[in-house]
């Protein structure tokens, strides 16, 4: 059992340098975020040593090897950033290889989504994508070679029997009664397996290694199984398929991979991969080197394709790209940027020990990027009407607003202002406490970029909710240009009513309510679903410019959060996904407004 420790608290997420020092013992620097400046991580140290020693001619060639049995998730993004990142840093190459040895679970849809996601993250693989299935002929030949060497045999026993005979880590296994078959008989049976003469599951080809090895993976592991199933690329050509363990190391070898980076669970498989290559290849001048690193675990998230597939199949989410999913497609739809995901991968670094990263760190990374690039707009997501009783009935004026204070190039725009406006329900209280700096009877606030208003009265509907707020405005207080600039504590965002566009807003919360939903022995992760992970608001009022947004456009709704236009949007009917909320920057807005 992995010792799971939450190493980054949310507070640390706000200051990622702190969390990194705690988290990754291989970092020895205060500035891990900038990959140029930070100390080498353990993988870089190995690569630099190998380069220095001119191992494999000093080449660096990595690969990202997904199995096309689902969409990629944020954990895969870590592996992608690492594999492509190392190739980039050391002037090498990185392959994309589909490990497609399991025809029953693999689909072309997944192959396509994986290519899209890798490209979207900003990486380009060397040449065309590779497929383990391209090597099926070579692997078959190699299996025959191992039979001829007397180190592979056909076992007629059912799978359960083979499992029983494997023993335990402390008890040696038992040799199969078929272990000492003659080479000729093995060759004949293996050929007939290939020709489809035997039913599924009736025989396997096993490596003949050592049933007493302390490493269970060395106890005569299965190399081939009979499977009469159509493959997404080779159709019905094959009736037998290599096991992942037999295909993986050989695929690395065939592609000239120098550094095979993979997650820790493969550490115990490494001796087997090395054994296969040593049996098959006499010339020892080139060998791929496997290096293991800790997989990414995120709090409040499940990170296995099998679990994510369950969420999709059971309609708990709306597809693989549901914005609540930790898939790359989901994060993209939610409004995450490639830069924010790469920055996150950089921050978490690579470690040798399993750990759990606070999901707050991922949110921190996207907030940081969106703060730089998102235009600020006015949007009222839970509107209530405000009427300025002393503002002319037929007048609309333009208010000039800065698009993005973080980006001087982004300029400004004009937003209409008039007698009837919307503000957030939340920004008005009938009986507010003293420290409430928003609107209430007799209180004054500034409307962002416009005037100071004072609440004179309000009207309730039949259910007792506030329906209309009546205010007066002071024409002398126009932001920036009016002769009076009184010090007012609260500044509200607003949208003019007659020109407002009605929008749908989707607010997302965590999918799971438990910090480690997949970590319970007795309970399934699905028992921890958050029933309120999606909240739909379909009467939001946004400024007129947002009538013509495109899918994927990103904005900061002032004082609310970062939002991204969903593909479900239509002209005059925009739909926005909340990417992440803002930190409360209430005080900051007020200060800027006054200053
Ligand atoms: P899952 O367990 O989520 O189904 P997997 O390991 O079966 O994932 P693969 O398609 O085999 O998925 O993974 C491709 C590569 O991505 C492998 O090298 C694997 O080690 C790496 N990878 C998978 N999950 C993570 C993770 N959470 N963190 C880092 N790397 C990961
Ligand atoms: Mg896998």
Write up this protein.
With 595 residues, the protein is an alpha/beta fold. Among the domains are: 151-243, Glutamyl-tRNA Synthetase, Domain 3 (Glutamyl-tRNA Synthetase, domain 3); 379-493, Ribosomal Protein L25, Chain P. The protein contains 15 helices and 25 strands. A seven-stranded mixed beta sheet has the order 10-23-24-25-21-22-11. A seven-stranded mixed beta sheet has the order 19-16-17-18-12-15-20. The chain has a four-stranded antiparallel beta sheet with strand order 4-5-6-7. Helix 4 links the parallel strand 1 and strand 2. Helix 9 (244-254) packs across helix 10 (270-280). The two termini are 57 Å apart. The protein binds adenosine-5'-triphosphate and magnesium ion. Adenosine-5'-triphosphate binds at residues 65-67, 75-76, 78-79, 262-263, 295-296, 303-306. Residues 65-67, 75-76, 78-79, 262-263, 295-296, 303-306 line the site of adenosine-5'-triphosphate.
What is this entry, summarized?
The protein is an alpha/beta fold. Helix content is 27%, strand content 21%.
Sum up the structure in keywords.
alpha/beta; Glutamyl-tRNA Synthetase, domain 3; Ribosomal Protein L25, Chain P; 7-stranded mixed sheet; 15 helices; 27% helix; disordered N terminus; binds adenosine-5'-triphosphate; binds magnesium ion
